[in-house]
TrEMBL record:
Residues 7-119 form the Response regulatory domain. GO terms for molecular function: DNA binding. Residues 148-213 form the HTH luxR-type domain. CDD domains: LuxR_C_like, REC_NarL-like. It comes from Denitratimonas tolerans. The lineage of its organism: Bacteria, Pseudomonadati, Pseudomonadota, Gammaproteobacteria, Lysobacterales. This is Response regulator transcription factor. PROSITE patterns: HTH_LUXR_2 (PS50043), RESPONSE_REGULATORY (PS50110). GO terms for biological process: phosphorelay signal transduction system; regulation of DNA-templated transcription.
Length: 216
């Protein structure tokens, strides 16, 4: 059994990195089928049908990994696996649709543990990346020490509830059923939530929910 994933795509131009990522995937999801690609072109040929999970390096020899993430947005769960830990790489990847961001500075056991957390709605993030994101989303304070949040960007109670449920790993349909509203209405709430929080992925939204104390 491979848990929530039965197939994954590993995209990295280095054979050693692909082997590291594949080993972590097998540890996290025993029995998972793995397809490897060493370039962007090779990866594009491997996404029909799209894989449930994709681990993507950003520095590919024939193009940026972000372009692949954009292609897979809404079709696959994409997790960046890279050496880049700067904002210039992190935020474009998240805005493109990446739902996790891990650095190649750990053992495959540690990566496997982070990948297992996907089933519980926990975005796989290296600790330093999580800290960087939390700092980025920390509220700015005015002279009196009060958060400078524009009233038009404040979440409504219903939007806050939708954010909390999404951050816990629930699908749009599950949120709709729980709140007795349509999935289309949930999608509308999410669009407004992403706009107000200035985020572009579930990973960013989940981190903002955690910062606000909405999830344990």
């Amino acid at each position: 059994m491979s848990g929530p994933f039965d197939r994954a795509l590993v995209v990295d131009d280095l054979a050693s990195s692909r082997a590291w990522l594949a080993q972590a995937l097998v540890l996290a999801f025993p029995g998972i089928a793995i397809v490897e690609a060493g370039s962007l072109a090779e990866a594009v040929r491997s996404i029909d049908p799209p894989p449930p999970l994709a681990l993507v390096d950003l520095g590919l020899p024939d193009g940026p990994g972000v372009s692949l993430i954009e292609r897979l947005r809404g079709r696959s769960m994409c997790v960046v696996a890279t050496v880049f830990d700067d904002d210039a790489h992190l935020f474009p990847a998240l805005h493109a649709g990446a739902e996790g961001y891990v650095l190649k500075d750990q053992g495959h056991e540690s990566l496997a543990e982070m990948l297992r957390g996907i089933a519980a709605g926990q975005p796989p993030l290296s600790p330093s990346i999580a800290r960087r994101l939390l700092r980025h989303f920390a509220p700015q304070h005015g002279p009196a020490g009060a958060p400078a949040v524009a009233a038009e960007n404040a979440l409504t109670p219903r939007e806050t509830e939708v954010l909390r449920l999404i951050a816990k790993g629930m699908t749009r349909q599950e949120v709709a059923q729980l709140l007795a509203i349509s999935a289309h209405t949930v999608a509308g709430y999410l669009k407004d939530i992403y706009r107000k929080l200035n985020v572009g992925s579930r990973a960013e939204a989940a981190l903002e929910a955690a910062r606000r104390g909405l999830v344990g």
